[in-house]
Each structure stands twice: as C-alpha cells, then as structure tokens.
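Hello,

I think I submitted the zinc ion job twice by accident. Can you confirm which output corresponds to this input? Input:
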Amino acid sequence: MAKGKTFAAKLAHEISTHGKVICPVCNTEIKRVKLITCKKSKADSWAPNYLFKKICKCNEQDILSGKY
Ligand SMILES: [Zn+2]
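Support: Only one job matched these inputs. Its output is below.
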C-alpha cells in the first residue's frame, strides 16, 4: 500500500531529526555534552561541577581544549 509506505517514511524522518539542532553559522549538528569540572569551595573541598554545553564546529575547539 503506497499510502502506508508514505506514512512510515514520514514517521522515520521525524524520528531521525527529533531533537537535532543544526547551527545556522557552521551548519553542523549542535550536540549537548555534559562536562564535569571541579570547583573549589570556600570550605577547601572540591565539589564536582556539572555543566551542560552545546557544541558545534563554532566552539568545539575551545571546549575540547578546556576554554569554556
Ligand atoms: Zn556553529
């Protein structure tokens, strides 16, 4: 059935692009990554600090080299 096939193809397309964000500047997918850094608190203890960053070609070099 052509009708059913069309529907399946459309559905697959929507799933594959769900949640994807393409950067308008570099035209690559923007990925969300979780970075874990350590922050020294006033009590002299190190606490893990979680950061969520969006990475695309524009900033991946900076983030991967520790500048964020
Ligand atoms: Zn970009």
